[in-house]
Amino acid sequence: MNQDKTIYIKKLMKFIKWNSAYYIYLFLFISFYFVSAANAQNELSNYLQTAAQNNPGLKAKFNAYMAALEVAPQVKALPDPQVAFGYFIQPVETRVGPQEFKFSAIQMFPWFGTLKAKENAAIQTAKAKYELFEEAKSMLYNDVRSTWYNLYFNNKAIDITKKNIDILHTFRQLAYVKVEAGLVSAVDEYRIEMEIGDLENQLALLRDKHYVLEVLFNKLLNVDNQTPIVIPNDLWTTDFYLSKNAALDSLRMNNHQLLSIDLQMEALRYKKEVADKAGKPNFSLGLDYTMVGKGENNMAGTDAFMFPKVGITIPLYRNKYKAMVKEVVYLETAKKNEKANKTNVLETLFENGWKDYKDGDRRIGLYKSQLHLAQKSLKILETDYATGNRNFEEILRMERKYLKYALELEKAKADKQAAISFITYLMGN
């Protein structure tokens, strides 16, 4: 019996010595901040640049903008001139000779300023398309950053879960020693087996999720799914660089959706001018050239000119043009309402994002403290259990809290940076 106790005490001392050093290492690993933060941010910037160059959705928005730019040269040009040629099958005899063929050309001219108004409307519409392109780019950047932060957290969750499984394997060895020494029942060993099974199932789910996040991230960058993704060992916890009011003012002034609506309203102002000028007369200038052949006296005929030929188009049906103007007026009112509604939506999203930012910042401080207390409590419980003064359920309960706080700390760090990314997106940066 004394020999069994001696063996038990040796194993116990070995466990306590190893486990204490292990927890110190784990705690330092989890609490390690700002290491290689600059390199990690540079890596993220490279990913954003790759996404901007490769993402097909962003390319589609840019090509839509480029197509809109080509409208202005079309609408500012004069209408195509009308050219006609007529040949007299039966020549028309005149005093100077028979008319053989006739050539005419006419150029239409819209009311003064119409073409310029059309050009301005097309330019403002193209600018609105460009703001939509910038909006898509800002959203893409936010998606890339958010996915990268999720990858960081999921990777940390995998590491922490694996380390907790290793700790439970050590607990199982200790429980096995105590069962052999007759100090506890086999129930402690069974509980550890169940806990290990739960964590292994969670670990498998995390690995599956990590693969899905990698696929999503590479698709955003439009690169091969096998491309390795660089994830930092620790995520920076820097604060947002603006106050809440300053960020909200920046949103109202710089948000690309609001800027696009402003430019669409400006385009409608020119379209209303075009509609108003459509009710004005249009003018035309032209010329006729008639070829006269030789007469009966066998002498060359005289070509007849008539220049200029002036025409005017009179818009008689006024209701049509009045309706065109009213249509644009209604569209202007609709755009004003759309901007007011979009501003309300964006400000609501901003408030929610700011709440997430402050919540993430608070949780970082909370879980740092909770994790430190849980780590100290767990070490005390391990020592008490090893000497037979504590029930194993208390150790498992504290171990679960330790795992929870470690995960929540990393989640808070990822959530804080994701909230900053979302606020930056709303500001149009």
Overview of the structural elements:
It is a single chain. With 429 residues, the protein is an alpha+beta fold. The protein contains 10 helices and 4 strands, in the order H-H-H-H-E-E-H-H-H-H-E-E-H-H. It has 2 domains: 350 residues, Up-down Bundle (Outer membrane efflux proteins (OEP)), CATH 1.20.1600.10; 65 residues. Helix 8 runs antiparallel to helix 9. The chain is elongated and about 140 Å long. The longest helix has 69 residues.
What is this entry, summarized?
By secondary structure, the protein is of the alpha+beta class. Helices cover 71% and strands 11% of the residues.
User: What's the count of strands?
Assistant: 4
Indicate the mean pLDDT.
85
What is the assigned CATH homologous superfamily of the largest domain?
Outer membrane efflux proteins (OEP)
Summarize the amount of helix as a percent range: over 70%
CATH topology of the largest domain: Outer membrane efflux proteins (OEP)
Shape: elongated
Could you say which structural class the secondary elements and strand pairing correspond to? alpha+beta
User: What is the CATH architecture descriptor of the largest domain?
Assistant: Up-down Bundle
In the predicted model, the low-confidence regions spanning at least 5 consecutive residues are: 15-35
Into how many domains do the coordinates divide? 2
**What's the quaternary structure here?**
single chain
> Largest sheet at a glance?
4 strands, antiparallel
List the main descriptive attributes of the protein structure presented here.
elongated; 2 domains; 4-stranded antiparallel β-sheet; 4 strands; Outer membrane efflux proteins (OEP)
